[in-house]
Amino acid sequence: MLGVKDQTMRALEFAQQLVAFDSVSRKSNIDVSDYVSNVLKQLQFDVERLEYTDDQGVRKANLVAKRGKGVGGIAYFAHTDVVPADDWSVDFCGAFSPVVKDERLWGRGSCDMKGSLACALAAASEIDPQQQTAPIYIVCSADEEVGMSGARHINQFSKLFDEMVRNETVGIIGEPTELRVVHAHKGGCRVEITAHGKSAHSSTKDGINANWQLIPMLARLREMQLLTERESVYQNAEFDPPTLSGNIVITNQPLAANVTTSLARAAWFLRTMPKVNIQPLLQQVRESCEELGLDCDLRYSIDPLWVDPASPYVQQVLALAGCAKSEVVCYATDGGVLRRLKNLVVCGPGSIEQAHRSDEWISLEQLEKGTALYRRFFEYWGVRG
Ligand SMILES: [Zn+2]
Fold first, then answer.
1. Between β-strands 182-185 and 327-329, what pairing exists: parallel, antiparallel or unpaired?
2. CATH architecture of 4-185+303-382
3. What's the gap in Å between 284 CA and the centre of ligand 1?
4. Widest CA span of the chain, in angstroms?
C-alpha cells in the first residue's frame, strides 16, 4: 500500500496525463476516453463504453466502469470535456501542456475536473479488488459543459447505470467544491427564440431585418425578468442569489452592417431551483412567441439537484469528509440529469473559483486530500464488513 506522498504523486501523474488531452467540448473526447478506459481496465474495472455523435457530427464517448461483486456500492462521476482555452493566459505553460509550479498543477481542466478524476483513479488503485464486498463504479461523461448530453445518454442507455438505480448505489459527483459536501444545486433551462428575415444589400428595399420582429419580445423578457426578481414564488432563499439569474444572449446573422439581418436569435437561460415552478414563465414565452410570429425552441432543461440534508447518506458523507454541514451551490452538474440515483451529493477537490479561468489550476494539497477522501468513500461503501 502506498503512503500519502506516493498516493498524491499517482493522482498528480494521472492529472497531468488527463490535462494533456485537448478535450474542449466542441472537439472529440475519444482520445481522453481511450486513455481513461485503459487505466480503468488496468485497475480491473469492466468498462461499458457508450458512444454517440453530437449535434455537430463529432464522435463522443461516455465510460461507465464497474469493479467488484455484490450490489449497491458507490459511484463516482466525472466529465472528460473542458471549457475552451482560447483565452489561456499563463505564460509558463500551455493550456494542454500542464506544469507543476508553486505547489499547483496548472492547465485547462486541472480543476474542472480532471484533477478530481485523477484523485478517484488514484484512490481506486489503492483498494484491493479482492477485498471489495460491493461495487465501485467510475463514470466519465462527455459534453457536461455544453448541455450535459453525455449524462443524458448514460441515463438513457447505460445498463450499468440502470443497475446502480436498481440497487440504490450511492453517488458522488466530483465537481470542485474544495471537498465540501453539496446536497443541492440549481438546474438550467435554455430557450431559443428566433426571428427570420431576409438578407439583401441594405441599400435596396429587398431585405427584411429580423431584429424588428425580435425586439418586442426582448422587452417582454425584460418584464418577466423583473417579475422573477420581485416575486418570492420565483425564488428560493436556500440559494445565494435566491433568483433564477435570467440571462439573455443575442445573435445576428449575417454580421455585416450593410446587409439586412436575416436571423435574430435570443438565447434565454434560467438557473432553475428546487421548489420553484417555472412553467408559467415558459407558457408566457410560448404564447408571446406565437403572437409575435417567432420560433420558440426549448433547447434543454436540467433539473436542479436536491437531496435531503438530514438523510443518512448525506450525514455519512459529512462524517467521512469531516464537515459539519452540507451546502448548496448555484451552478449545475450532471447530477441534475442523473436524478434517478436518489443518494447523490457533489464533493470534489479544487475550488469553483479556479474553474473556467484563463489561468486554471488545482493545488497539490487538494489533490492529496481528494485522493484520501475518495479512498475513504470507496472503503466505506465498497469494502464493508
Ligand atoms: Zn465541471
1. parallel
2. 3-Layer(aba) Sandwich (3.40)
3. 32
4. 81
pLDDT for position 6: 82
Query: Domain segments of the chain: what residues?
Result: 4-185+303-382, 188-301
Residue spans of the chain under pLDDT 50: none
Report how far ligand 1's centroid is from the alpha carbon of 220 (Å). 33
Residue 20: closest CA among 130, 105, 92: 105
H helix count then E strand count, the chain: 9, 16
pLDDT at 1: 57
pLDDT of residue 147: 85
Q: How far is the CA of 337 from the centre of ligand 1 (A)?
A: 14
Predicted pLDDT at 384:
78
**β-strands 99-101, 263-270 pairing:** unpaired
What's the pLDDT at 2? 63
Please give the distance, rounded to the nearest whole angstrom, from the Cα atom of residue 144 to the centre of ligand 1. 7
Cβ 341 vs Cβ 164: under 8 Å: yes
The string of DSSP letters for 34-63 reads HHHHHHHHHTT-EEEEEEEE-TTS-EEEEE
Among 59, 63, 61, which Cα is nearest to 27's?
59
Burial 318-345 (b: 16+ CB within 10 A, else e): bebbeeeebbbbebbbbbbbbbebebbb
Class in CATH terms, 188-301: alpha beta
Strand partners, 249: 267
Q: Provide the strand spans (E) within the chain.
A: 46-53, 59-67, 74-79, 99-101, 104-106, 136-141, 170-173, 182-185, 188-196, 247-253, 263-270, 295-302, 305-306, 327-329, 344-346, 361-363
State the pLDDT at residue 329.
94
Q: Do domains 4-185+303-382 and 188-301 have the same CATH topology?
A: no
Instruction: Quote the ligand 1 centre to 78 CA distance (angstroms).
Output: 8
| Cα–Cα distance measured from residue 272 to residue 301, given in angstroms and rounded to the nearest whole number | 9
Strand 263-270 versus strand 188-196 pairing type = antiparallel
Q: How far is the CA of 207 from the centre of ligand 1 (A)?
A: 43
Q: What is the pLDDT of residue 261?
A: 96
Please give the distance, rounded to the nearest whole angstrom, from the Cα atom of residue 179 to the centre of ligand 1.
Answer: 14
* Ligand 1 centroid to residue 111 C-alpha, Å: 8
- How far apart are the CA of 57 and the centre of ligand 1, in A? 23
